[in-house]
Amino acid sequence: MTAPFRFAPTTPAGHAAQRRQSQLTKPPGSLGQLEDLAVWLADRLGEATPARLVPAIAVFAADHGVAVEDVSAFPMEVTGQMVANFVAGGAAISVLAAEHQATLRVIDVGVAHPVPVPPGAGAALVVRPIRAGSRNLLCEAAMRADECQVAWQAGAEVARQLVAQGHTLLIGGEMGIANTTAAAALLCALGDIAPEHAVGRGTGIDDARHAHKTDVVRRALARAQAAGTDTPHAWLAQLGGLEIAALAGFYEEAGRQRVPVLLDGFISTVAALVAVRHQPATAHWLLAAHASAEAGHRHALAVLGLSPLLDLGLRLGEASGAAIALPLLQAALALHRSMATFAEAGVANQ
Ligand SMILES: Cc1cc2ncn([C@H]3O[C@H](COP(=O)(O)O)[C@@H](O)[C@H]3O)c2cc1C
Ligand SMILES: O=C(O)c1cccnc1
């Protein structure tokens, strides 16, 4: 069980939103967490009655050298194949973005086996600091500091562009076979979580492979520790991946631009943890869409002090869980904006 999402306002806009909630034609508190959600959005957007959100989804894709350790149920080739599927409109996130009228950007930050995109389809933006994806984090640093930095900056640049285009809510997503291994290792390092709590089933591995994956994470942590790893960026370079670095840069920049972020699942939340460890002010802008079925996600949310809105047993990634929660945010704001007050409707207030 996770705690319900509750929020006490911190700004004049948030306080005004909370006063408005108490005047709308409903028993106080009867819209539950949707009331907290409207007040949180008003608080963060700096407006007592915010307009409908203009959401954008950026999905970052990259491959992971640690995939050779047999830690995923799927082969590395799937990453590039799914990027083509995102762009062609056939993936879960493509369907959800279209359904909820959200801008979708796909960014290849290190796909090892890219698949040509059919003519006429929207192209995926390509920025590849390492053309074959990150290195095997069990044996060596996943990225050099400069490679990690290029990916981080690519993510930050995407956030800047989306905000400049008028988007008022940013959602990050990822695609990268074996990235639950990298994310678990990072969660252990930055959140002080034991590997047996951080490592999950990812794409659906069996008990034997799960035990092996946990061992891979344990050994990778020991290797990175022995290398004297200290800062969040250094841990990210040791144990992360290019799409995780890009996501962390994306979240940090969203906060710097003062735009709220709706987090997706395990990998996205661990990337947000990296951003928060690097720049603590980022935490102020984060909202958790859902609790993934991936074992480590609840721990990652707890480390960040976040309460997820939904718990649907999702374990897909791609930003899909955040996209599924998006209509809840729009509903909370529509009610907040457009319901009548007791005075307007002539309804007796107690
Ligand atoms: C067809 C397919 C579509 C996906 N979309 C997201 N993921 C998810 O699964 C991967 C992580 O799990 P692991 O660490 O076990 O490889 C990531 O790419 C993630 O986004 C997918 C995985 C597959 C196979
Ligand atoms: O929670 C997630 O984001 C997740 C879980 C399993 C596989 N891929 C992603």
UniProtKB/TrEMBL annotation:
> CDD domains in the record, alphabetically?
DMB-PRT_CobT (cd02439)
> Could you tell me the keywords of this UniProt record?
Cobalamin biosynthesis, Glycosyltransferase, Transferase
Domain of life from the UniProt record:
Bacteria
Q: Name one GO molecular function term.
A: nicotinate-nucleotide-dimethylbenzimidazole phosphoribosyltransferase activity
Q: Which Pfam families match?
A: DBI_PRT
Region described as Disordered: spans on this chain: 1-30
- BP terms from Gene Ontology: cobalamin biosynthetic process
User: Which residues participate directly in catalysis?
Assistant: E318
Please list the reactions this protein catalyses. 5,6-dimethylbenzimidazole + nicotinate beta-D-ribonucleotide = alpha-ribazole 5'-phosphate + nicotinate + H(+)
Q: Which pathway, metabolic or otherwise, does it act in? A: Nucleoside biosynthesis; alpha-ribazole biosynthesis; alpha-ribazole from 5,6-dimethylbenzimidazole: step 1/2
Which EC numbers does the record give? 2.4.2.21
Which family does the record assign?
Answer: Belongs to the CobT family.
Q: According to its UniProt entry, what is the function of this protein?
A: Catalyzes the synthesis of alpha-ribazole-5'-phosphate from nicotinate mononucleotide (NAMN) and 5,6-dimethylbenzimidazole (DMB).
The entry's protein name is: Nicotinate-nucleotide--dimethylbenzimidazole phosphoribosyltransferase
Q: Which organism is it from?
A: Chitiniphilus eburneus
Taxonomic classification: Bacteria, Pseudomonadati, Pseudomonadota, Betaproteobacteria, Neisseriales
